């Protein structure tokens, strides 16, 4: 995907979402949403055998809304809101972030061999991996690789994790604690297919809270 494409992207209609525009600094931080993972693994019972084998899945897509709460470099609380399109093809994830009016803020592409961040009116930024790219561009990294599994929902097979099953919903997961993140599943869909509807992700150090609503 070329940076020039961003200039040609027309505002797209959102699904009746009326969310406030984030500040300029919040928008810049929202670009890093869901990209990379550099946290140290947490200790806990291993549940990697429950992870989905992504290699058997050729493609996957999610569409929805996001909000991010974080503390900036000056210690000030910030918030960002918008919509997202997630396209997963094999080992490659392409994440498009949009403002509440449907205009593209950024496109993040992650694969095992490289990562690219495209911003409007700027040259693309590249690195060997998402974590390196985000650290170089914004000073921190966020968990795209983890989300590839957590949105299944399933713990990632790359590190130990602790899971909690919802006692009111049989085998559905209620919470995953992995790689310094707490992933809480607040709602599931039943039709046309079973899947995650609402998930909250939080991390203490540095503090970060992400809320996702999946419209699929």
From TrEMBL:
Residues 1-30 form the signal peptide. NCBIfam families: lolB. It comes from Trinickia symbiotica. Its main location: membrane. It is a lipid-anchor. Monomer. It is found in: Cell outer membrane. InterPro entries: LolA/LolB/LppX, OM_lipoprot_LolB. Coiled coil: none annotated. Belongs to the LolB family. One of its GO terms (cellular component) is cell outer membrane. Keywords: Cell outer membrane, Chaperone, Lipoprotein, Membrane, Palmitate, Protein transport, Signal, Transport. One of its GO terms (biological process) is protein transport. It comes from the Bacteria. Pfam families: LolB. This is Outer-membrane lipoprotein LolB.
